């Protein structure tokens, strides 16, 4: 062919179907190539960690292909997209998830076996990505898995913290915190995008300029910081669709202050620039509490400023009419953390795009929706006006304007009612004026949702009743969900095989409603036997882990009683450990004959306390002190063991959840917004001992209360019970008195250590631990009774698993897509025939 006839790019087009092959040999070659050319090690001799890395890079290659195909396809089709803005993504490990979702488990298994490695062992080489605290961050990750699996055009946006959730150690029973510099081991799951960078401004001043079309405002000066994008591909299950989580990292901006450098102080000028990197240094380790630090506000603004630049750039590729923006873009705020993004979009529309106030505000509110994750007052974010004024002067002006117009609406609805104005205002008056971020989020969104039916009721009727009266249609419920891929298929292979066998299909992985059919076989002794042996296998796996990490030998025939979550007074680990003490004292007092009837238990705790949360840390110390005494008491050896597993994280949860017989969901009624571990446990056939709080209520509706152990005060009884407590009318249960007495007498170590805990109960038992204590013991007695009839227990366990359809994050994401975002699936028509 003469050169002139060669079409530009024709070679590239011909290559378009030339994807990496997924057979065993190609994968194996890929692994060896990465060991040699990416890791620069010899392929004739490498260790497990290198094998993990090599495997991860081959997976990454395949993810990148799919990612490119997906994004190209979305660009072509231009569907409405959803952007999930979250300060936290608690991803855990990625290798197993990606291999399973791409359907390449067998290929990887045999490719690695020939190289001398077990795929399952390599999973353990991976460090958890822990860019989140707890439920809220893990929810975001489950949602991302479901969005990709359901083929929704979705993006996650967040921050790439250099330090994730701290690593917890336990020394002398106390929690210690070690920074989690997770990137030191390298991160094959991220793609650095040096071509995607934006500049973010802080501080500075606003200049008003007169103009014929009204005055213009310029935000100038201050400090500039650079945001760099890092992408993590999110593969859907059994689909080419591969979405993206884009995380921002802060870097010094190239512009510098010449005077500072010329002033002869070069080193300190460099140092000043270097400080911009601090913004994305560390994840704030608070769960359900507001910390009020300026750096946190900087993180929030940095996050949304970069994200909006990116979203708008993508929108502008195909559109020039701003009225189309809400038809192409839905933005979901994961709690109030990214709420300043409402003002940022508004600022860009007004100051940069020169759109009129009312029209701009319409665009903003049609675009945003806000999810509330807690009603605990200490978690509600309220930034001092002075802080925002200084850091984001233009935003503060706009917030005043937004509030002014909003309060006009309030006056129209309730003329002359100053009280209503005061309580609804975005600005809280007082010695120090504050911006109520939840109010700003409600005013700036078209939809506000809670995360479980009961929680959404409380959001509407107890926390924001006036907003609900003003905008009754704005409030919705979207009960949380968790992904059955990670939490059944990957975490519990034994259960997966049972499901595949008895349902005669593996469709349940994406259509969890299939598990209902398991109920037909509930009385089949073969199923019951298989169920028992899978649970036994999982318990042995956990027992090994406990032995490795804590040096404690536990009896795998015992009932595994599990309480794993952040340590918080409202979650009441204290109620549990006080119950354990009572159990211990009872066994000690028993005759040998009575002891023969005792149900052996292994009580497992795990969870981190915020480093500044003194009381929660004391609860950890109490648990460990009690464990120490019990585990070293030969007399109770076969009946009771207490284990605190340190450094709880996603991958540890994947081992604990499938091994549990019962799980504790015992928050004071009305305090836990939803809970999501309750869903994971139920899927894995663990029975809940719990209060009617959060999603437990809906789990009880699906599973049936007779298949759980529900106890305790109800939400509507809480106010009365608190009043009773304040009036000192509570009679302390005699069994609890005995527990207190033993703590005070030093049975579990120097009593002064635990005095603050007992005092907190005696002077202000806000979470009503004492009033629920007798009811809790009754429920635990029921647990023991049922355990003695193993087949009845197993049947209830099967019923739990088979009733969990509703708690799949697939269901949750469909509801969000249809009822809030108005988006549709956009299935990639893959150009590679070999895939799906
Ligand atoms: N949650 Br607010 C967190 O994990 N961290 C937070 O800062 C806030 C809420 C949790 C809720 O406590 C839990 O009940 C809920 O299931 C979860 O968010 C996801 O909605």
Helix content: 40-55%
**So what's the overall shape?**
globular
Total domains = 3
Average pLDDT, all residues: 96
Strand content: 15-25%
Strand arrangement across the biggest beta sheet: 7-10-11-4-1-12-13-17-18
Q: Count helical runs.
A: 34
The CATH homologous superfamily name of the largest domain equals Glycogen Phosphorylase B
Tell me the CATH architecture of the largest domain.
Answer: 3-Layer(aba) Sandwich
The profile of the biggest β sheet is:
9 strands, mixed
Bound molecules: 5-bromo-1-(beta-D-glucopyranosyl)pyrimidine-2,4(1H,3H)-dione
Structural class: alpha/beta
CATH third-tier fold name of the largest domain: Rossmann fold
Q: Can you count the beta strands?
A: 24
Give me the Rg, rounded. 28 Å
- Termini, distance in Å? 37 Å
CATH class of the largest domain: Alpha Beta
Low-confidence residue ranges: none
* Quaternary organization: single chain
Keywords: Allosteric enzyme, Carbohydrate metabolism, Glycogen metabolism, Glycosyltransferase, Pyridoxal phosphate, Transferase
Modified residues (N6-(pyridoxal phosphate)lysine): 680
Cofactor: pyridoxal 5'-phosphate
Catalytic activity: [(1->4)-alpha-D-glucosyl](n) + phosphate = [(1->4)-alpha-D-glucosyl](n-1) + alpha-D-glucose 1-phosphate
């Amino acid at each position: 062919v003469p050169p002139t006839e060669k079409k530009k790019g024709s070679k590239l087009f011909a290559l378009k179907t030339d994807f990496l092959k997924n057979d065993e040999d190609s994968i194996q070659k890929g692994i060896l190539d990465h060991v040699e050319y990416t890791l620069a090690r010899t392929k004739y001799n490498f260790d497990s960690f290198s094998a993990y890395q090599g495997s991860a890079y081959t997976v990454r290659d395949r993810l990148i292909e799919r990612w490119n195909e997906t994004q190209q396809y979305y660009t072509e089709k231009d569907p409405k997209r959803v952007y999930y803005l979250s300060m936290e993504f608690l991803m855990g490990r990625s290798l197993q998830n990606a291999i399973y979702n791409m359907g390449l488990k067998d290929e990887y298994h045999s490719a690695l076996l020939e190289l001398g490695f077990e795929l399952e062992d390599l999973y353990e080489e991976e460090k958890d990505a822990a860019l989140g605290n707890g439920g809220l961050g893990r929810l975001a990750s489950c949602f991302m898995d479901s969005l990709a699996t359901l083929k929704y055009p979705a993006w996650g946006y967040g921050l790439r913290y250099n330090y994730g959730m701290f690593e917890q150690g336990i020394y002398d029973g106390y929690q210690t915190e070690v920074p989690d510099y997770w990137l030191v081991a390298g991160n094959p799951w991220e793609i650095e995008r040096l071509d995607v960078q934006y500049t973010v401004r802080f501080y500075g001043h606003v200049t008003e300029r007169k103009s014929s079309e009204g005055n213009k405002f310029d935000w100038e000066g201050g400090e500039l910081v650079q945001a760099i994008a890092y992408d993590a591909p999110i593969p859907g299950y059994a689909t080419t669709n591969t979405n993206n989580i884009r995380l921002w990292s802060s870097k010094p901006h190239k512009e510098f202050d010449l005077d500072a450098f010329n002033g002869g102080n070069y080193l300190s000028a460099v140092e000043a620039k270097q400080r911009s990197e601090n913004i994305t240094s560390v994840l704030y380790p608070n769960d359900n509490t507001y910390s009020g630090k300026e750096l946190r506000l900087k993180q929030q603004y940095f996050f949304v400023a970069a994200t909006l630049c990116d979203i708008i750039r993508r929108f502008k590729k195909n559109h020039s009419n701003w009225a189309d923006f809400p038809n192409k873009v839905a933005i979901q705020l994961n709690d109030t953390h990214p709420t300043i993004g409402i003002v940022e979009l508004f600022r860009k529309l007004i100051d940069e795009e020169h759109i009129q106030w009312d029209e701009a505000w319409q665009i903003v509110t049609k675009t945003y929706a806000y999810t509330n994750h807690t009603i605990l007052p200490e978690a509600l974010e309220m930034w001092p006006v002075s802080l925002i004024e200084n850091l984001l002067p233009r935003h503060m002006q706009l917030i005043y304007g937004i509030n002014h117009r909003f309060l006009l609406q309030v006056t129209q609805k309730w003329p002359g009612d100053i009280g209503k104005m005061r309580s609804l205002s975005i600005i809280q008056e007082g010695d120090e004026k504050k911006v109520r971020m939840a109010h700003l989020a409600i005013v700036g969104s078209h939809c506000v949702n809670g995360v479980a039916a009961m929680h959404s009721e409380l959001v509407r009727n107890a926390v924001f009743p006036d907003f609900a009266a003003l905008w009754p249609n704005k409030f919705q419920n979207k009960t949380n969900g968790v992904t059955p891929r990670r939490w059944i298929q990957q975490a519990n292979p034994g259960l997966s095989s049972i499901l595949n066998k008895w349902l005669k299909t593996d469709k349940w992985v994406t259509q969890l409603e299939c598990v209902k059919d398991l109920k037909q076989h509930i009385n089949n002794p073969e199923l019951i036997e298989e169920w028992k042996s899978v649970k036994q296998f999982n318990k042995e796996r956990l027992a090994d882990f406990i032995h490795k990490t804590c040096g404690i030998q536990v009896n795998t025939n015992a009932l595994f009683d599990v309480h794993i979550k952040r340590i918080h007074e409202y979650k009441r680990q204290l109620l549990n450990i006080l119950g354990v003490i009572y159990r211990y004292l009872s066994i000690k007092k028993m005759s040998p004959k009575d002891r023969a009837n005792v149900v052996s238990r292994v009580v497992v705790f795990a969870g981190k306390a915020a480093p500044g949360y003194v009381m929660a840390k004391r609860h950890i110390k109490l648990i460990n002190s009690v464990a120490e005494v019990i585990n070293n008491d030969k007399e109770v050896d076969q009946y009771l063991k207490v284990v605190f597993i340190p450094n709880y994280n996603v991958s540890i949860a994947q081992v604990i959840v499938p091994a549990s017989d019962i799980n504790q969901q015992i928050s004071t009624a009305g305090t836990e917004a939803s809970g999501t571990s309750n869903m994971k446990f139920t899927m894995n056939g663990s029975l809940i001992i719990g209060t009617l709080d959060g999603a437990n209520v809906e789990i009880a509706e699906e599973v049936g209360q007779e298949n759980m152990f529900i106890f305790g005060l109800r939400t509507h009884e809480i106010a009365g019970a608190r009043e009773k407590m304040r009036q000192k009318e509570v009679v302390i249960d005699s069994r609890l008195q005995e527990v207190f007495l033993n703590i005070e007498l030093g049975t579990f170590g120097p009593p002064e250590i635990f005095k603050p805990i007992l005092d907190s109960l005696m002077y202000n038992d806000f979470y009503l631990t004492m009033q629920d204590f007798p009811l809790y013991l009754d429920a635990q007695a029921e647990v023991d009774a049922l355990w003695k009839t193993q087949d009845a227990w197993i049947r209830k366990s099967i019923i739990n698993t088979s009733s969990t359809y509703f708690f799949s994050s697939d269901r949750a994401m469909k509801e969000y897509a249809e009822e809030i975002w108005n988006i549709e699936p956009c299935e990639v028509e893959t150009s590679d025939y070999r895939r799906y």
